[in-house]
Amino acid sequence: MEGKIPRYLLVFTLLALSGFIVLIGNITSLEDLNDQLTSNFYKIQSSIHSAFKHPKILLPAKVNHPYCAQFGQEPTAEEAKEERDLLNSIAWPGPAVQGLPLEVSSDPAKSYFMIHGPPRQHIGGQLVVSVHMQNFLGLPKKHGGDFLIARLHSPELGAGVAGKVHDHQDGNYIVIFPLLWVGVVWVQITMVHSSEAVVVLKRLQEEKPDRGVFKSMFRAGAASETTVCNLCLPLNQDPLCNYTDILTGEPWYCYKPKTLGCDARVTHFKADMKGNLITNYDAQFFQSGINLKVPIHSSGMGNVTVIPAEEGQIQVKNNQTASGYYYKNTWRPLKGQDMHQFNNATAITKCLRGKVVYMFGDSTIRQWFEYLTAVVPNLKQGNLYIPKSAGPYVAVDSKNNIMISFRCHGPPIFFTTLFTSELRYVANELDRIEGGPNTVILVSIGAHFNMYPIDIYIRRLRHIRRALLQLLKREPTTLVVIRSANMRKLNLQISLSNSDWFSQQQDTVLRAMFHGLNIHILDAWEMTLAHNLPHDLHPPRPIVRNMIDLILSQICHFEKT
Ligand SMILES: *[C@@H]1O[C@H](CO)[C@@H](O)[C@H](O)[C@H]1NC(C)=O
Ligand SMILES: *[C@@H]1O[C@H](CO)[C@@H](O)[C@H](O)[C@H]1NC(C)=O
Ligand SMILES: *[C@@H]1O[C@H](CO)[C@@H](O)[C@H](O)[C@H]1NC(C)=O
Ligand SMILES: *[C@@H]1O[C@H](CO)[C@@H](O)[C@H](O)[C@H]1NC(C)=O
Ligand SMILES: *[C@@H]1O[C@H](CO)[C@@H](O)[C@H](O)[C@H]1NC(C)=O
Predict the structure, then answer these.
(1) Which ligand is nearest to the CA of 297?
(2) Residues 260 and 349 both lie in one domain
(3) Which ligand does the CA of 249 lie closest to?
(4) Which site in 4, 169, 346, 433 is 20 to 30 Å from 205, CA atoms measured?
(5) Number of structural domains, the chain?
(6) Pocket residue to mutate for ligand 1, from 17, 26, 32, 104, most atoms within 8 A of Cβ
(7) Got the DSSP string for 411-476?
């Protein structure tokens, strides 16, 4: 008996080993199959020169199955076309074969980047870096879809700029950085998610949009009840209360309380995240320190020395590749805006004198309100009966005729407890604003839409854009700034609800929808990516300060010096 066990063990071990070898063999061939399949859709581009072109054909955009299609207004033909184009523009490539073991997914530790060109390069040019993704077995990846971010920086100069990543869809990526200052610059490439992890995120977005649980409390006299709410709820089960906004048609529903009426709804709040969102298999692709926001190392040199321009050197139009960069920790915009520093309350007050500043959105714009009231003590804030952190807030400097305000956006705001009377849609608030040369409107909307399919976000932006364009038609001198989303610290749980990948998709949509309008986009994405401070849902104060300085510079229309 005792002697047999080791023999069985040996047999099992051999069997397991041979199975593993066969499996690995088949995986390699699956990757080849994947390759053959996808090569019908696009040519593998391996030459660096092609990095300057966009990949010609992306994987066909999945026909979107609109979430909550039975609710909300039908888009017009024009809106539907815009939506299709937007969805095509964010189509994300990925593995053609899914469900393979972790070993064949992207491993940042086995992947590497290479700097192209000489170790000394001229300012005004572009630095080209190629990234070569490999799996945990150390074999090259054959498909694209890894979510990479890139930064070029000089720590001792407080300088940094974001790079543009081009996916060649063959496991290789090209990153382009503008060379904007003289000195030693270091390349930093980070894999936020493997393409295999993005598959999981896409699935969650489509199949589990209700993973954040909202609730409302209903009250009448001594009786109170709490029920679950969301953008849409199953129609054929318990009775619903319909809180669809009459003006915008934005849907919102709660289960009807057992004893109380729908009009007894008092509060709105986030309850929790649903559990069991993904399997243990899926969770392997979200391991902190292994394949979640992990740096990729250089196979050789990790830096180049940027030297002054040569006589007669042809300048590359660097303003095409980045919206700005940090130098001495100060943001320098590249798209023709001015940037001044507002070092103290006096300077800020002088700039804001006679202005009304409206801030609408999420907690990232509340940070701006908090920054201004902290730095400018003469902006006095009343705080009677205001739920902490939810707002709305108002601060006034009556001597200098300044008013600033913050109000959060409407559902699906995933916030602390709000009174339903304070649940307002940004578009409706904008419709009530007169506008004019002394009015500034700041909007930030994104993070709370991370959990939903992107069409929900597109619809919301459409309503806000419509309201902004009407306001600008009434009062073209109104200053309007929209803040894009920013990177944040990620772990498994946060990735499932608020991954940077969701924000990146939204960011592309937001830029496209507001492009060419008299509406400024504050590039919080690049401002957090280019900075050396760690990513945070609420960017640290030095970044907020740069954002505020950028906005104040726009408000005050400084003369170019
Ligand atoms: C591996 O692939 C071969 C053909 O390429 C096939 O005959 C075999 O059944 C496969 N093995 C497994 C374990 O899938
Ligand atoms: C909810 O109300 C809106 C507008 O009042 C309406 O268009 C929609 O059909 C209603 N939803 C349901 C499920 O009845
Ligand atoms: C740049 O990188 C090279 C190679 O990795 C290294 O030897 C050199 O010290 C680096 N330069 C600076 C200024 O640190
Ligand atoms: C980019 O720079 C070029 C020349 O430096 C300028 O002509 C162009 O207007 C700039 N583009 C933008 C969008 O600012
Ligand atoms: C405030 O900042 C302005 C502009 O930087 C500067 O000229 C002024 O001296 C500062 N005032 C105080 C009181 O520090």
Answers:
(1) 3
(2) no
(3) 2
(4) 169
(5) 3
(6) 26
(7) SS---S-EEGGG---HHHHHHT----TTEEEEEE--GGGTTS-HHHHHHHHHHHHHHHHHHHHH-T
Indicate whether 274 and 299 sit together in one domain.
no
Q: Which residue carries 């929900």 as its tokens?
A: 456
Q: Does residue 299 belong to any structural domain of this protein? A: yes
| pLDDT value for 310 | 80
- Residues 232-258: tens digit of each pLDDT: 888 778 999 999 999 999 999 999 999
Instruction: Let me know whether 163 and 238 are in one domain.
Output: no
Residues 232, 176 within the same domain: no
- Residue 546: phi and psi, rounded to 5, are -65, -40
The residue to mutate among 18, 22, 27, 30, having the most atoms of ligand 1 within 8 angstroms of its beta carbon, is 22
Centre of ligand 3 to C-alpha 301, Å, is 7
Same domain for 150 and 294, yes or no, is yes
Question: Which whole-number Å values give the CA distances from 124 to 117, 182, 354, in the listed order?
Answer: 14, 10, 41
Q: For residues 560 and 547, what is the distance between their CA atoms, to the nearest angstrom?
A: 19
For residues 385 and 495, membership in a common domain is answered with yes
Angle at CA of residue 47, ends 188 and 124, nearest 5°: 50
Q: What is the domain range of residue 505?
A: 329-560
Whether the CB of 84 sits within 6 Å of ligand 4: no
Ligand approaching nearest to the C-alpha of 232:
2
Contacts of 402 (CB under 8 A, 6+ apart): 349, 352, 353, 354, 355, 356, 357, 379, 396
How many whole angstroms from 510 Cα to the centroid of ligand 2? 28
Q: Indicate if ligand 4 lies below 6 Å from the C-beta of 315.
A: no
Q: Is the CB of 307 under 6 A from ligand 3?
A: no
From the CA of 24, the nearest ligand is 1
| CATH number of 291's domain | 2.60.40.10
The tokens describing 393, both together, are: 């807030």
Residue 61 lies inside a defined structural domain of this protein? no
The CA 408 to ligand 2 mean position distance, Å, reads: 24
d(CA 265, CA 255): 11
Query: What pTM does this model have?
Result: 0.84
Same domain, 394 and 467: yes
Q: Which atom of ligand 5 is nearest to the CA of 346?
A: 1
pLDDT in tens, 443-469: 999 999 999 999 999 999 999 999 999
* Protein residue with least CA distance to atom 8, ligand 2: 71
Q: For CA atoms 503, 443, 150, 505, give the dihedral sign.
A: positive
Query: Is the same domain home to 147 and 189?
Result: yes
Which of the two residues, 37 and 423, has the higher pLDDT score? Answer: 423
List the one residue out of 457, 463, 444 whose CA is nearest residue 502: 457
Asked, for residue 17, whether it belongs to a domain, the answer is no
